[in-house]
Amino acid sequence: MELRHLRTFETVARTLSVTQAARELHYAQSSVSDQIQALERELGVDLLDRSQRRVRLTPQGVALSEYTGRILKLLEEARWAVSRPDAEVAVGALETVGLHLLPAVLARYRSLYPEARVRVTQGNRGELYKAVRRGDVDVCLTFGAPPADAGLRAETLVEEPLVVIAPPDHPLAERGRAPLADLVKEPFLATERGCGFREMYDGAFSGAVAKEPVAEVSSIGTLGACVAAGMGCALLPHVAVRAQADRREVAVIEVEDARLRTAVTMTWLDRNSANPNLVGLQTVLRRQLAA
């Protein structure tokens, strides 16, 4: 199939008008019709229903239109990839994601695309989504599902387990696992309301007795330090506490009877999907986090 025939068919399928397609493509109407007929002969099916005056797609035409859109979009990405190899890609991330997940990804990306420039911005989820909508960042990395927005695209990269951290000398520390009923009895610290980590905390205990935290802390680093000092426990993504646990500053306790997880999600503008640097970074993100 010739690309010009696919491009012509995509335009006819989108506009449902041979006249409008000819105008957009700067072709004579007869040329548009000839290209559609050539495509039909090659495929051996009718793509347009010619029984009525108005242009309609046959079921085979509808199926092909879905593929032509993807093919032409991929072609545009390829054109970007060879024409702008030194463009900048801007990444937004939550502080926890930026600190614990992003460095290895960016190092790998730079090794594959040494001419590309990278700019990293940190903020809370609301700030990051606004930055994506404004075009200030190309992609943002957050925990949880993104907001419903027709202009945004999102993809879950990996699911991160939620764990409870406790002071290293806590009675449950040696067990490493505990039922939720035992954990409900413990004093807990949490982040402030409106924070994504607070949503994780409230969601985890929604099926148990409502549990108000004994303290609210805005910084994850401070929260972990307070747990290490013996103030209580906290519920956080495992990636956020791994370094502290490796230094034996806190003990990690898995919840036995609950599947507590949160998604690490990348979100970007749909219209920015052809940016080759974004495509390259997304590929590295998928591979690195899957590994």
Automatic annotation (TrEMBL):
Keywords: DNA-binding, Transcription, Transcription regulation. It comes from the Bacteria. The keyword Ion transport does not apply. The keyword Calcium does not apply. Transmembrane segments: none annotated. SUPFAM superfamilies: Periplasmic binding protein-like II (SSF53850), Winged helix' DNA-binding domain (SSF46785). Residues 1-58 form the HTH lysR-type domain. PROSITE patterns: HTH_LYSR. Belongs to the LysR transcriptional regulatory family. This is LysR family transcriptional regulator. It comes from Streptomyces lavenduligriseus.
